[in-house]
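COURSE: Structural Biology Practicum
ASSIGNMENT: Worksheet 4, Part C
STUDENT ID: 0417
INSTRUCTIONS: Below are two proteins. For each, the amino acid sequence is given first, followed by its structure token string. Answer the questions at the end about the second protein only.

PROTEIN I
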Amino acid sequence: MDVGALSPAEARARFREGLVTPTSGWSLGYAQANLIIVPKDYAFDVLLFAQRNPKPCPLLGVLDAGETSGPLLEGGDIRTDVPAYTVYEDGDLVDTVTSLEDHWRDDLVTFIVGCSFTFETPLLEAGIPIAHIDQGRNVPMYRTSVRAESAGRMSGPLVVSMRPIPASQVADAVRISARYPAVHGAPVHVGDPGAIGIADLDAPDFGQSVQIPEGTIPVFWACGVTPQAAVMESRPPIAFGHAPGHMLITDAKDSQYAIP
């Protein structure tokens, strides 16, 4: 199956049927997104957190309380159309599930947050290798020592995703991803992981480690798992997210989020 050739609706249908897989490389040309879902009582705090932290939390859309579909997933269902979801109670990760139907409440508000998988297609088109795709791995993600700006009851660390980029192509990767500010944009750090508090690239906090090819430099982009790290720290009574690397594939084209 050529997963890159599937339409977003076709991909979501497979996830709805129970397929669990990281989505990097799926439905090429279409934007992917992170999710954070909280009770309406916490929605303003999450909205303010996203507004104050636009690099890791670029909002693509917000669903009304209880709403399960919208313009980014026409005919879809936010409760079933992601490969896997995380379930948090009082900030603790208590489960990973393939459907939120049994957990759904009418007061839940869904935030759809831009994802760096979106600009992987233009990176590949420019001849820049993506290690986690080449190695069949989930992208590695790390908590950093950099603090996100707090908002109301929400606080936590910046989370980053890492891609080892050939040294001769780092400038191109920066230039290309910078054209996509709605999906994290340019990297937040290049080079020494210790400078942002990452002790071991082989021990990511989320996702999977990748082999770092000789001649490459680790490049770090702000990551939409940042709100889930804030949930873990801030401990709302209930919250949900996508399992890291298992994204919502939207109906929006990558090109919609590119600036000239």
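PROTEIN II
(use this one for the questions)
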Amino acid sequence: MKKIIAVDGPAGAGKSTVSKIVAAKLGYTYIDTGAMYRAVALKSSQTCEDLIMIIDKINIELDDKAQVFLDGVNVTKEIRTPEISKLASDVSKFGFVRKRLTELQRQMAERGAVIMDGRDIGTQVLPNADLKIFLTASLDERARRRFEELKAKGQSVDFDAIKTEIALRDKQDSEREIAPLKQAEDAILIDSTNLQVEEVVEKILTLCSTD
């Protein structure tokens, strides 16, 4: 059984949804690294201080229900807006931000029995993970998923705007100088465009049990 699982992929591919379910079925700890960058982005938007001066003071915690706490405050909803999504991509370009969060993420993974998702888990954060998955889907499908997710939360959203935002996020993530989004050489590609969540989960569970 694989003890450390890395799941990478672009925005809207379903990484968080799938990873949460897999973690629950295996009794593993789920670590949403994207939420950690979003929390840093939210903090950056709330202060006039230079981010480099506060990054080491920021306290980010994730509980077993995938709730995110920033300096002791539950910000699970606040970090899921399109504005924070874009800002998260911006702050992730800074080497000092990535260095600090990578340290925290590796500490979380040290105990094993974890599934961690993000953009650079298999390539940078956990290069020795037991199993690496690169989960993707078409741009239209990813935009549709994000549109439905935000609409269900009562947010006023525009599909074309979301599609444009995700395409921009893809470009920023894949072209950034530090730890760009890319599939690790030993990662297994899963295209979820025409798959149900349950089908993706079963694929990963099967891979987890394979020696």
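ANSWER KEY EXCERPT:
Q1: The mean pLDDT is 92.
Q2: The longest helix spans residues 159-175.
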